[in-house]
Amino acid sequence: MNAPVIPPSPSREEYARDYAAALAANGDETIFDRVEPIGLFVEWLAEAGAHEVNDSNAMTLSTVDADGMPDARIVLLKDVDGRGFTFYSNRESAKGLELDARPVAALTFHWKSLRRQVRVRGQVQPVSKEEADAYFASRARESRVGAWASDQSRPLDTRATLEGAVARESARFEGDEVPRPERWTGWRVTPQSVEFWRDRPFRLHDRLRFMRDGDAWTRQRLWP
């Protein structure tokens, strides 16, 4: 078997070559003047949207299963405000069952084009029925049908079985609106901590962590 192609650690010359670009993207020290993390996150997300090739709102959602083992997958952030970070999925999926049993999660955003990362940890709560209905109604019709057809995370014998389920549900709702299945909902991660990371030369990165303190935030700079 061929050895995996893993890039070596950059040389001093490579660091020097990239220094100007890194400084231009991540050299603004005013990041440390912030008193809360959500506004800064929204700014970084907007910058990512202008630079990432696709899915700038993609994030790794990490949960814990019944055996205490960590579990992780990529999902899409659908809303963020002072209440937290919101995403949607099937309540009966692996992630849904894990969140029901242990309503805590970690989120990781990585924007390679900007050489930045954000980590979020916090408690998780389901969104309201009204929020779930409103977001579900905004999805493409085919995606709404798919939510009815898919037994998410269950074993599937063939692709043909999935396509047959989609065809069956498409026929069932033909000419009608596709309502939200009860098992499909959203969750909001209420952050207890939010850490911002940005690349700097020679692995001397910047890290800034916000910790919730009642209704306010404390902040702390971390060693790289």
TrEMBL record:
For this UniProt record, the keywords arranged alphabetically read as follows: Flavoprotein, FMN, Oxidoreductase, Pyridoxine biosynthesis
Q: Which GO terms describe its biological process?
A: pyridoxine biosynthetic process
**Pyridoxamine 5'-phosphate oxidase N-terminal domain segment(s):** 51-168
The metabolic or biological pathway listed in the UniProt record of this protein is:
Cofactor metabolism; pyridoxal 5'-phosphate salvage; pyridoxal 5'-phosphate from pyridoxamine 5'-phosphate: step 1/1; Cofactor metabolism; pyridoxal 5'-phosphate salvage; pyridoxal 5'-phosphate from pyridoxine 5'-phosphate: step 1/1
Q: Where does substrate bind?
A: 78, 135, 139, 143, 203-205
This entry's Enzyme Commission designation comes to 1.4.3.5
Q: Does the keyword Oxidoreductase apply?
A: yes
Q: Which family does it belong to?
A: Belongs to the pyridoxamine 5'-phosphate oxidase family.
NCBIfam families (UniProt xref): pdxH, PRK05679.1
The entry's function note states:
Catalyzes the oxidation of either pyridoxine 5'-phosphate (PNP) or pyridoxamine 5'-phosphate (PMP) into pyridoxal 5'-phosphate (PLP).
Task: Check the record and name the PANTHER family matching this protein.
Answer: PYRIDOXINE-5'-PHOSPHATE OXIDASE, PYRIDOXINE-5-PHOSPHATE OXIDASE
Record-linked HAMAP family: PdxH
Q: What is this protein called?
A: Pyridoxine/pyridoxamine 5'-phosphate oxidase
User: What phylogenetic lineage does the species belong to?
Assistant: Bacteria, Pseudomonadati, Pseudomonadota, Alphaproteobacteria, Caulobacterales
Gene giving rise to this polypeptide = pdxH
